[in-house]
Design a protein that fits this description.
single chain, alpha/beta, 4-stranded antiparallel sheet, disordered N terminus
């Protein structure tokens, strides 16, 4: 296509809902191809949440994990909360959208009560809404970059004040969280409570899961496995206390100063649940065909966590989905065959602090030295800054 939009693409207006890894990958490709698009997110900055756990324990690290959308995508970015998707009029309605100019032709503005709302028209829609979960693993709030960074710096102080810390949930996030704390503060007592016997993601090779357990034990993490926290509702996560008593269903009691919860990740379906009710899978993800098109809607794509594809929800897979969605928007306009997405063997790396890790690539075990070089030291932060064409602080 070169740098100019071809005749077939002149009528295209893509709206991307969600600025996570899949969203910025799609937006970057559309921008490079000079295809009109609007990226929507409730935050003003991309959150590199692969590094969120380290940002929770290392002072000053959080500023590396938030990257301004507006600097990269300029007028193609809108900050706002999606409140409705109108399939008949092919518009996305935002609440709290900022009116930048009265002469904008790509959107209309109107007022509901005291709130401005913005209607974004689309010829093609990419849903990349990701997943929601508890802070610090996820940061799903209408927020500014400064406020988001401060939230992580506040948690760093809570961690620093606490001699004893309990991490609830031994999936991949909980494993990485416990390792990050113990790496940064080896003298602190860290206890990981997990309802299952095996740790980390269930799709990982058994040898990878076992080695993750061994690394935690080598770091001095106390493991309470096959036990579930029974008084979680009574606790105040992320807040230092002189004495917090964590109880389990096996009558174990742990006295601690800080509780960090690393479970409960769910697909973020709030933007599309009402309009696509019949296309929802049981977990809230959208059922898609092999081209990542939402069932019955050839001009609407779902990528990343909100696509009901049988594979782990990772930043890596979200990027692959974005490639397919953008290619198929172009192919559909040029009357070319669409590209199918075929899930491959699992690639998943666990960063166990900056100095250790384990994982697998394309289904094959990868040792600790390679994972440390590939992910643990940088957590792919530099890759996101490169994608956003900005220089890290």
């Amino acid at each position: 296509m070169g740098s100019q939009v071809s005749m077939e693409m002149e009528a295209v207006q893509v709206v991307i809902v969600g600025g996570g890894f899949g969203g910025i990958a799609a937006a970057s490709q559309l921008q490079a191809l000079n295809i009109p698009f609007t990226l929507v997110d409730m935050k003003d900055s991309f959150h590199h949440n692969v590094a969120a756990l380290r940002a929770s324990v290392e002072s000053g690290f959080a500023k590396k994990t938030f990257i301004s959308y507006a600097v990269t995508f300029k007028e193609n970015f809108r900050q706002g909360l999606v409140v409705e998707i109108d399939l008949e009029d092919q518009t996305v309605l935002l609440e709290g959208g900022e009116v930048l100019s009265c002469s904008l032709l790509s959107a209309s503005y109107f007022r509901v009560g005291w709130l401005w709302q913005e209607a974004l028209p689309f010829s093609h829609l990419i849903l990349a809404t990701g997943s929601t979960g508890l802070f610090p693993g996820k940061f799903n709030q209408v927020s500014s970059q400064q406020a988001a960074i401060q939230a992580y710096e506040d948690l760093v102080r809570q961690v620093q004040r606490s001699q004893s810390i309990v991490v609830v949930g031994g999936g991949s996030a909980g494993v990485e969280m416990a390792a990050e704390i113990k790496t940064e503060y080896p003298q602190k007592e860290v206890t990981l409570i997990h309802s299952q016997i095996a740790l980390a993601d269930k799709e990982l090779l058994p040898c990878v899961r076992q080695e993750a357990k061994e690394i935690l034990l080598q770091k001095g993490v106390n493991l309470l496995l096959s036990e579930r926290v029974s008084n979680l509702e009574e606790l105040s996560p992320n807040e230092h206390r002189e004495c917090i008593r964590v109880q389990t269903d096996k009558d174990t009691e742990v006295a601690t100063n800080l509780v960090i919860v690393c479970n409960g990740i769910k697909v973020n379906s709030s933007a599309y649940r009402s309009v696509f009710e019949s296309q929802l899978a049981g977990n809230g993800a959208l059922r898609v065909n092999q081209y990542l098109q939402v069932e019955g809607c050839s001009h609407i794509y779902a990528i990343g966590d909100c696509a009901n594809v049988k594979e782990p929800k990772t930043a890596y897979h979200a990027g692959l989905h974005a490639n397919i969605a953008v290619a198929n928007i172009i192919n559909s306009r040029k009357h070319r065959p669409l590209k199918a997405y075929k899930p491959g063997a699992l690639t998943f790396l666990l960063a166990m602090g900056r100095n250790d890790g384990v994982g697998q690539i394309s289904g094959f075990y990868v040792g600790r030295f390679m994972v440390r070089l590939a992910k643990s030291r940088d957590l792919f932060v530099s890759t996101s800054w490169k994608t956003m064409r900005q220089s890290p602080p």
